[in-house]
């Protein structure tokens, strides 16, 4: 009996555990919160990721460790890796945790990125603005998620406001200024690399964010084969350079058919949730296969799929479940403003059918604004 340890007990751990059950796997989830939603399906060890005694107990009860939470302290990941196999490896995790290290690596690999400059003082912000230009986004280097720890500067006149918002964090997490990209669309590559180096990517996904939080994903993205090949080649280069094992996502901006990399996520990713019903093998299943050294499953998709995130509170499931290709995921979390509490996936054999289903669901749930950009993309000539 193999036990997979997961650091972090949110919905990603929950979906990993659900996906691993048919493989006969056992799980142990570690989280700082006693009500972590993965705990509804897997034994939960409540503890601080920095606490050696808690980590030792965790290590003693598992055969292999992986992550649901990308900000597990690098030192804790390394401590664990000295005792049990840990995938992805702590070095890859550390790079993905720091926007500066991540963007520097992208550049080294020839993956285009927006202009950027690291900074830690108010004077350095002025210097960074002089090189990066405006509009720009000031971000914390570490610990940001769902668009938190970011400030948008429309012009140089916003420098004071940006510093007021994030300057206090400069010492603790570092700051980075990035050029604002007036993108046409946002894309992601969700890919997996096995212990033996085998690499597979799912079809490219197009993503829509609202206030920095993912709102909807569509797969396959309507992009040329050349663009898809380039995006997947970037993801592959990244995985090979970091000796990555498991699933990860590479987030990309697309402007005039040019790709610019935004960030990588060293874990299964929200933009890959559609793979549960929309692909031959889901990202969760392939992540587990990768970390266990099992053969990877095919990543081809079945028709067209759209994932809608439910933020704050769950809508009524009825409209969605009434659709032939409708699939419901309630993470079992308490409602809270801005919190990801669930998602739905609609799948259809052709694009017109998917657009029609999305339109019906959007109208019934009063989510017209959420489905509109996806329907627009599906119905564009
Ligand atoms: P995630 O939840 O994806 O980890 P995050 O907090 O790490 O989010 P980013 O992915 O960097 O943050 O930014 C969130 C969103 O904000 C992006 O998906 C994009 O919509 C927008 N954004 C971020 N950086 C830029 C940029 N340089 N130019 C334009 N838009 C941007
Ligand atoms: Mg991020
Ligand atoms: Mg992101």
UniProtKB/TrEMBL annotation:
UniProt keywords, alphabetically? ATP-binding, Ligase, Nucleotide-binding, Purine biosynthesis
Q: Which InterPro entries match?
A: ATP-grasp, ATP-grasp_carboxylate-amine, ATP_grasp_subdomain_1, PreATP-grasp_dom_sf, PurK, PurK_C, PurT/PurK_preATP-grasp, Rudment_hybrid_motif
What is the role of this chain?
A: Catalyzes the ATP-dependent conversion of 5-aminoimidazole ribonucleotide (AIR) and HCO(3)(-) to N5-carboxyaminoimidazole ribonucleotide (N5-CAIR).
Q: Is Plastid a UniProt keyword of this protein?
A: no
What residue stretches are annotated with the ATP-grasp domain? 103-292
Source species, please? Pseudoxanthomonas indica
| Record GO biological process | 'de novo' IMP biosynthetic process
What terms describe the molecular function in GO for this protein? 5-(carboxyamino)imidazole ribonucleotide synthase activity; ATP binding; metal ion binding; phosphoribosylaminoimidazole carboxylase activity
GO CC annotation terms, alphabetical: cytosol
Q: Which Pfam families does this one have?
A: ATP-grasp (PF02222), PurK_C (PF17769), RS_preATP-grasp-like (PF22660)
Top-level class of the enzyme under EC nomenclature: ligase
What lineage does UniProt assign to this protein's organism? Bacteria, Pseudomonadati, Pseudomonadota, Gammaproteobacteria, Lysobacterales
List of residues binding ATP: 99, 139, 144-150, 178-181, 186, 209, 262-263
Q: How does it assemble?
A: Homodimer.
The metabolic or biological pathway listed in the UniProt record of this protein is: Purine metabolism; IMP biosynthesis via de novo pathway; 5-amino-1-(5-phospho-D-ribosyl)imidazole-4-carboxylate from 5-amino-1-(5-phospho-D-ribosyl)imidazole (N5-CAIR route): step 1/2
Q: Would you tell me the protein name for this molecule? A: N5-carboxyaminoimidazole ribonucleotide synthase
Q: What is its EC number?
A: 6.3.4.18
Q: Which reaction does it catalyse?
A: 5-amino-1-(5-phospho-beta-D-ribosyl)imidazole + hydrogencarbonate + ATP = 5-carboxyamino-1-(5-phospho-D-ribosyl)imidazole + ADP + phosphate + 2 H(+)
The family classification in the record reads:
Belongs to the PurK/PurT family.
């Amino acid at each position: 009996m193999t036990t997979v340890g997961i650091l972090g007990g949110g919905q990603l751990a929950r979906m990993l555990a659900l996906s691993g059950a048919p493989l006969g796997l056992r799980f142990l989830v570690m989280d700082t919160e006693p009500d972590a939603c993965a705990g509804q399906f897997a034994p939960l060890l409540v503890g601080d990721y920095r606490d050696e005694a808690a980590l030792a107990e965790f290590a003693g009860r598992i055969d292999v460790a992986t992550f649901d939470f990308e900000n597990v302290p690098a030192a804790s990941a390394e401590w664990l890796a000295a005792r049990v196999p840990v995938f992805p490896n702590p070095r890859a995790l550390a790079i993905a945790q720091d926007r500066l290290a991540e963007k520097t690596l992208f550049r080294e690999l020839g993956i285009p990125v927006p202009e950027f400059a690291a900074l830690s003082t108010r004077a350095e912000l002025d210097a960074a603005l002089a090189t990066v230009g405006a509009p720009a986004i000031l971000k914390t280097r570490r610990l940001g998620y769902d668009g938190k720890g970011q400030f948008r500067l429309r012009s140089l006149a916003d420098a004071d406001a940006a510093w007021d918002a994030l300057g206090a964090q400069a010492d603790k997490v570092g700051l980075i200024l990035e050029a604002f990209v007036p993108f046409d669309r946002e894309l992601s590559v969700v890919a997996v690399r096995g212990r033996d180096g085998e690499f597979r990517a799912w079809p490219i996904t197009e993503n829509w964010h609202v206030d920095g939080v993912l709102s909807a994903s569509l797969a396959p993205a309507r992009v040329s084969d050349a663009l898809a090949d380039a995006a997947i080649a970037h993801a592959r280069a990244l995985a090979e350079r970091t000796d990555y094992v498991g699933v990860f996502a590479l987030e990309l901006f697309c402007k005039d058919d040019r790709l610019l990399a935004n960030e990588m996520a060293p874990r299964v990713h929200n933009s890959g949730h559609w793979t549960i019903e929309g692909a031959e093998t889901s990202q969760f299943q392939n992540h587990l296969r990768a970390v266990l050294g099992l053969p990877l499953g095919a990543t081809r998709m079945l028709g067209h799929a759209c994932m809608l995130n439910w933020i704050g509170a769950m809508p009524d499931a009825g409209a969605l479940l009434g659709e032939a290709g409708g699939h419901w995921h309630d993470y079992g979390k308490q409602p809270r403003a801005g919190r990801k509490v669930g998602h739905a996936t609609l799948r259809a054999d052709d694009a017109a059918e998917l657009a029609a289903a999305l339109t019906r669901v959007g109208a019934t749930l009063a989510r017209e604004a959420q489905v509109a950009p996806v329907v627009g993309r599906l119905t564009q000539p």
